[in-house]
Amino acid sequence: MPTEPVNESDLMNIAINVLIVDDDEPHAQAVAESLERSNCDCTIANSGKKGAEAIESDNYDVVITDLKMDEVDGLAILRKAKEELPEAEVIVLTAHSSIPSVVTAMQGGAYTYLTKPLDIIELRNAVEKASQRVRLLRRNAALSRRLDEKFGFEGVIGNSPAMHRVIDQLRNLAPTDTTVLILGESGTGKELVARALHQNSPRKSKPFVPLNISALPESILESELFGHEQGAFTGAAAKRIGKFEYANGGTLFLDEVGEMPTETQIKLLRVLEDRKITRVGSNEEKSVNVRLVAATNADLKQMMEEGTFRRDLYYRIGVVTIFLPPLRDRREDIPLLLDHFVKDFSKLHGKEVQGFSRAARQVLMSFDWPGNIRQLRNVIEGMLALDTDGLLDVDDLPMELAELAGQTVEHLEGNSGADLLIGQPMTEVEKYYIARALELTSGKREEAAKMLGIGERTLYRKIKEYDLK
Hints:
Elements: H1 8-13, E1 16-21, H2 25-36, E2 40-45, H3 48-57, E3 62-66, H4 74-84, E4 89-94, H5 99-107, E5 112-115, H6 120-151, H7 161-173, E6 180-183, H8 190-199, E7 208-212, H9 218-226, H10 243-246, E8 251-255, H11 262-274, E9 276-278, E10 285-287, E11 291-296, H12 300-306, H13 311-317, E12 320-323, H14 334-349, E13 355-356, H15 358-366, H16 372-386, E14 391-392, H17 402-412, H18 426-440, H19 445-452, H20 456-465
Parallel strand pairs: 1-2, 1-3, 3-4, 4-5, 6-11, 6-12, 7-8, 8-11, 13-14
Antiparallel strand pairs: 9-10
Helix pairs in contact: 3-4, 14-16, 15-17, 18-19, 19-20
């Protein structure tokens, strides 16, 4: 489940870690006391040697070092800091008008230099300006983490045993170059899983290139994969780089690989074995370094028996196989997906909603979702876009869920669907619906509590009270 976004104001208010390296202990102490009044967390090293050791063992945002010290001088501290703490800023202090040394320090990457005796206001201003850059780096790092989380394993949402297995596989496979085959019905999130693999791999800084085989005519598929030379065929007015070349160093995702024609299967197998491609209309081979992730909703084993999918290619692309279960087989993940999509679409469309009514949530939990996560996602976006009262209720559901919605409302209101409960004590009615919610969520108390519109502690108490399993 996605983590909460980083609060940028919190990042900007975190204390700056400052290392003060100075063999003049009273002077170092005075500098530290002055900076600690300005939200700095200061550490003192009373020699260049101790300063170097501190840089090796801890992390600092700003290093303030005296230029002239025995054994290890300020220039050595500067080099050490740039080597061990590349994001830190270094301020050099000098009591000498040694222009060559100051120039050397600035050329070595020092942020600035100050002369002794220090002007405290000048020192604070210098540290504040240096720390602004450090805070900017922190903010950019936080934004990068958020991008990672969008396509990282946190983006593969699920708390069901089946999805725990999938996520465990992804964590183990991400650092490798192993070819992966993702199986699952349409809409189960195969491309999302492929992106998660790429985004958490050493190839993350290189391209992720998706290609849907079923969306391309057979006549241009090879050109899309391997590229072509000018004049290679009618209409080839210019040279074209194929997806393998474009993805060089990164990951190529071939969706619906079961739709690939037999002749193209042969050429793909050769590329995977030799790591070389040949553009259409050329005799020149080009080396490529690409990780292949393939996906399909077809039964490749049956296709092999029928002779429409090559057995050798199947074993080559299916070194490791990941199976994504349909949404109807992991209903306990639906509440997580509902909350995730509402949060995303509320931000996208600039609308605030309280969430789902109990009836709407039960309809969404009970539906079989033949289109899987893609269908659920589209339904939630449509509900939110049409909502006018801030609560996603059964009146916001699309037509394909309307009949089920009517049955659910009748059931919840004690009409025809709950005839057996008429005349029963309220405790029996409550017990029935709690048991039904637990059944629909496969015993997940958090999801069941959300469905029922009560707190998890209240649900836990009711489970004990009614002796429910």
